[in-house]
Design goal:
Elements lengths: L2 H9 L4 E8 L2 E5 L2 E9 L6 H6 L1 H10 L11 E7 L14 H14 L7 E6 L2 E13 L1
Parallel strand pairs: 3-4, 4-6
Antiparallel strand pairs: 1-2, 2-3, 5-6
């Protein structure tokens, strides 16, 4: 399984409207809001316990530490794969279809977009406000 399978599974959820054409910064609509979907791993220098306990802090960190070539302040939905026992093996989680798809379905069944998802971050001396959702999938 690669990121495409995860993205395809997300697009099939009843609360998701996928974009038909590639729109920069928008992969899906969730709860009426546009989101750029990012399937990735916990950054090597980020504390896993802090990420699990404060996912919006991780979202702010991800925005503030993105590369300038990939900069964007669009709403983002981060799907983070994390092997708690060995973070260097997090990539292997994407092979666990039942775990990943079950967590994704549960997330969308129970989540909505609200003011609680609004974050403020700084990038190159400018301040941005956006909405971010994070799903951390762990084993």
């Amino acid at each position: 399984m690669d990121h495409c399978f995860i993205e395809e599974h997300i697009s099939l959820h009843q609360k998701i409207v996928p974009t038909i054409k590639n729109i920069k910064g928008i992969d899906i609509f969730f709860d009426g809001q546009p989101f750029d979907l990012k399937v990735t791993y916990l950054p090597a220098n980020y504390d896993p316990i802090k990420a699990i306990n404060n996912p919006l802090d991780l979202a702010i960190w991800m925005y503030e530490n993105q590369g300038s070539q990939r900069f964007g302040a669009d709403n983002r939905l981060f799907i983070i794969l994390l092997d708690r026992n060995d973070p260097t093996q997090s990539w292997a989680l994407k092979r666990n279809y039942s775990l990943v798809f079950n967590k994704i379905d549960n997330f969308f069944d129970n989540e909505s977009v609200s003011q609680n998802d609004e974050i403020v971050f700084k990038y190159q001396r400018r301040t941005y406000t956006t909405f971010a959702k994070i799903l951390i999938i762990t084993n």
